[in-house]
Every structure is written in C-alpha cells, then in structure tokens.
Specification:
Elements: H1 9-25, H2 29-56, E1 62-65, E2 76-79, H3 81-104, H4 111-130, H5 134-152, H6 158-189, H7 194-204, H8 207-225, H9 234-240, H10 243-270, H11 274-296, H12 301-322, H13 325-356, H14 367-370, H15 372-385, H16 392-406, H17 410-434, H18 451-466, H19 475-488
Antiparallel strand pairs: 1-2
Helix pairs in contact: 1-2, 1-4, 2-3, 2-4, 2-19, 3-4, 3-10, 3-13, 3-18, 3-19, 4-5, 4-10, 5-6, 5-10, 6-7, 6-8, 6-9, 7-10, 8-10, 9-10, 9-12, 10-12, 10-13, 11-12, 11-17, 12-13, 12-16, 12-17, 13-15, 13-16, 13-18, 13-19, 15-17, 15-18, 16-17
C-alpha cells in the first residue's frame, strides 16, 4: 500500500530509469527496453495501490514533507482522490505507449535516448500531480516540458525541428506567464504551499494581485493545454512527433500540465466564483467549436487528430467550468476517456504511417482489408470520441450535457451536442477514406503492424468499449468519485472570497 515513505517513488522510479538507460544503452541495447517498461510498469502499479489505499482511508489525503521540514517550509507531496485518479490515467497510457514503442521505435536510432527522455517526461508529469507546492509544480512542469520539446524533434527532420522550436517558444511563454502568476501569488500570500495559500486568501481575499495572478494562470496553463485562443502550437507539434510521443502529448501531457494544474489552482487554491466559472465555460465552448471546424478541413490524419484534441479539451473545461458535482464528474470522466481514445487514435495513425508511409487520407483506401486490427481499434476510438453509445465517450459527454441542462445553460448543452455530431462527421470521413473501398494498387503489399503495437492498441480499444463500466456504483466512488470530491470540496463560496 501507499504511505508517506513511498509517495516520492512516483518521481524517483522514472528518474532512476532515465539515469540507468544511458548507462546501459551503449553496452547492452536490449536492456534499455526492459528498463523502460519496468519503470513505467512500476509507477502504474503504485498508482493502482494509491487508489486502493485512499479508498481504505475514506479518501483522507496522504502527505509527506521532504527533509523533515514541516509545511509550509518543507517541500510537500500530497496524495488525494484527484491525484490518484490522474496518476492512474497518466501511467496507464504511458505503459501502453511504452509497449507500442518497442516495435515502432525500431525505425529510429538511439533507443536509449528515447526512453531516457520518455521517462524524464513521465517523472515530470507525476511530479506535477503529487506536489503540494506551487513552485515545485512549476519545476516539475518544466522537466516534463523540456523532455517533450526534445521528443517532438526526435526524428531530426526539418519539419520536426521547426515544430519543436515553435513548441518550445510557445511553451516557454506559457511557463513565463505561470512563473509571473506564482510571483504575484507569493506577494499576496507570503507562502508557496498550496494549502496555505488557500487559507491565506480566504483571510486576506484575492485582491487585484490575486486576480492578476489568476489571469496569468489561465493564459499560461491555457497555452499548456492548447485551449483556444492559446492553441497555435499544437497542430504543428503533435503531427511532427513520433506517434508514441503524439499519443503522450495529446493523451496525457496537456492534461497533467494544463487542465489538471489549472483545475487544481482554480478549485483548491484560488477558489471558483461565478465569473471564473463563466469564463471557463466560454473558453471550453470556444475550443470545442474552433477545434471541430478546423478538424473538418484536414486531410493529414495527425493534424486532424491534433485539432480534434483542441475540441475535446473544450468538453473537459466546459464540464469543470459548470462547477457542480455532476459537471466536475463529467469533466474528469471525459479527461480520462480522452486520454484513452486520443492516445489510441494517435497510435493508430502511427500504425498507418508505419505500414503505408503516408498520413494523407487521399492516398489511402481499403486498409480495413489489409490492417484489420488497426481498422477495428480506430473505429472503437472514433465512436468513443464522437459520443456514440455505448462507448465510453458517450457517458462522459452525457454527464457534461446533463450538468449544463441542470444549470439551465441551454446554449452550452446545444453546442456540446452539435459538436459531437460534427466530430462523428469527420471521423466517418477518416473511416471512409482510410479503411473502406477497394485497396489501391500501391497498398496491396501493406500488412498489419508488429505484435507489440497491436497489443497496445487493443488494450486501449477495450477501455474505449468498456469504459462506461467506471460509472457503476462502487467503481465510480473508488476512482472517479474521489477525484470529483477532491475538487468539489475545495470550492470556495463567492461571499468568502473577500476583496
């Protein structure tokens, strides 16, 4: 079980793996794969134990301070329901992506460099999730971000280097905005510990300094999560990266570095108000619409998926922005579902490019006859992301729409339904041009991808199909309920905010 002494292992294990990979990479190349898989498997197992441990403690948080220094002076790590939920989501996707990489990365050299950067990125994401200190959240965010910049450029082609440079510039601007926000919060609360910041702000109020920090956080984390209008970097970065990294970036990185961090600060530190709620819902709806419209016009499969990520992030932010227990539950459930089906779609696109050598839908056709596993898993993910029952995405979108209706937010409910129809339309386009029809003469030699890639895709596809079972009472309380309660419990009544 998870205790204070084992909590730092979520960062220490992938960091140790990242240290070992270069030592073995030049001598025992086959050992690098084993180190990478074992490190990710270890933190995934720990994340499952974290959920079980919290359920046995009635979801009372677990915390540890480094070096024996008490909070707020020492570096604090905290495990609550939301942290455990995010740890399972991030490390589950990371495990299957790592398995997929065993075959996919054969076309690249320096596998030890890939797994070193991959594990550094995972350590940074896990650090963001467990830290209870706002400055260390920034430090871990930078570790994950810098590793992701290098991974986007891993192929070292011209377009990959250009996309990585643009991603690094936009990411650095986001980081600067976040750091400025942290500075303002520190000047207001005189502490960096998130729990103590919340207490101080309840006493002294947000004031103009706190409001300015909130604006900077929304802009900074909006850049990290690619919310409209902060999305310009994503359509270039995600298609240029190797498929496993595209899956990690779109599936979990923008959730942990963007959505999670913003939600944690807004709900548990700064406090949610009707004005903040309205702003989040508006940003969410704008992202849904803009992302879906831009995705409709794409023929490059990975660019289509990148714009689709912008749209689906909008659903998550809309659900969280509603601010009710049902809206928060729906937003978090859609966060999990999007991590699964979007990771799967990027892995599927990688499999198509691996076998066909192209991402242009107009150069495909009839692949359903040549790549049956890829065809089936792509269909499963497409139906889930489009909200078709009984796939997992249907249930999370239904909860978000119901939350909007409960709060009489009719316009947002209608937009959510309409964008689901648009999403279905452009994924039917993918199915029509990539998998249906006759096999082109140039594609008659195409065969299915290797076993490790198929195993990862089938694992994610099964979650797309059966993910709705997470709403069954008992399972819901253990996994989703604890996360939703962690955010709901932190909501501050507007009258208590002060000036």
């Amino acid at each position: 079980m998870i205790g204070p002494n084992t909590l730092p292992l979520f960062v220490a294990i992938p960091l140790a793996g990242a240290f070992i990979c270069p030592l073995l990479g030049k001598r025992v190349k086959s050992a690098v794969d084993a180190v990478g898989i074992m490190a990710v498997l270890g933190v995934f197992a720990l994340s499952i134990f974290a959920v079980i441990t919290l359920e046995g403690r009635d979801y009372s948080p677990i915390s540890v301070t480094a070096g024996g220094w008490p909070a707020p002076y020492g570096i604090q790590m905290v495990l609550d329901g939301l942290t455990a939920f995010m740890l399972v989501t991030v490390n589950f996707v990371a495990l299957l992506v790592a398995i997929y990489s065993l075959s996919y990365m054969d076309r690249y050299t320096s596998r030890w460099k890939y797994f070193t950067l991959f594990l550094l990125m995972l350590a940074g994401m896990n650090g963001v999730l467990i830290t209870g200190d706002i400055f260390n959240l920034f430090v871990f965010l930078e570790i994950a971000s810098i590793a992701s910049y290098a991974l986007v450029a891993f192929g070292t082609e011209k377009h990959e280097l250009e996309a990585a440079f643009r991603y690094a510039v936009m990411g650095s601007i986001g980081s600067l905005l976040i750091l400025m926000g942290i500075t303002l919060i520190y000047s207001r609360a005189s502490t960096l510990n998130m729990a103590h910041i919340a207490q101080r702000l309840q006493v002294f109020g947000m004031g103009r300094t706190g409001l300015a920090a909130l604006v900077l956080f929304v802009a900074g984390f909006g850049l990290k999560s690619a919310l409209v209008p902060f999305h310009a970097w994503l359509p270039d970065a995600h298609p240029s990266a190797p498929a496993p990294i595209s899956a990690m970036l779109s599936g979990v990185l923008i959730k942990s570095l963007g959505v999670y961090a913003l939600a944690r600060l807004v709900f548990n530190v700064l406090g949610i108000t009707p004005h903040i709620s309205s702003a989040l819902m508006a940003l969410g709806a704008l992202s849904m619409v803009v992302g879906a419209i831009l995705a409709m016009n794409q023929w490059d499969l990975k660019r289509l998926l990148a714009y689709s990520s912008i749209s689906q992030i909008g659903y998550i932010v809309l659900g969280l922005g509603v601010g009710t227990p049902l809206g928060i539950l729906g937003g978090l459930f859609h966060l999990f579902n999007h991590s699964v089906f979007k990771s799967l779609l990027f892995l599927d696109s990688g499999s198509i490019e691996y076998s066909v050598g192209s991402r242009d839908l107009r150069e495909m056709g009839g692949l359903g006859k040549r790549m049956r596993v890829t065809s089936w898993t792509t269909l499963s993910a497409s139906m889930s992301i489009s909200g078709v029952p009984p796939f997992a995405g249907f249930w999370s979108k239904l909860l978000i729409i119901m939350a909007c209706i409960q709060e009489k937010q009719w316009v947002y409910a209608i937009v959510a339904v309409a964008i689901s129809i648009v999403t279905l339309a452009y994924f039917l386009k993918v199915t029509r041009f990539a998998f249906l029809g006759t096999v082109r003469d140039t594609l008659r030699g195409v065969i299915e991808v290797p076993a490790f890639m198929r195993i990862a895709m089938v694992g994610l596809a099964m979650v797309c199909i059966l993910g709705g079972l997470l709403l069954i009472p008992g399972i819901r309380e253990a996994f989703l309920g604890g996360a939703a309660n962690a955010l709901s419990a932190g909501v501050i009544i507007p009258g208590e905010m002060g000036r």
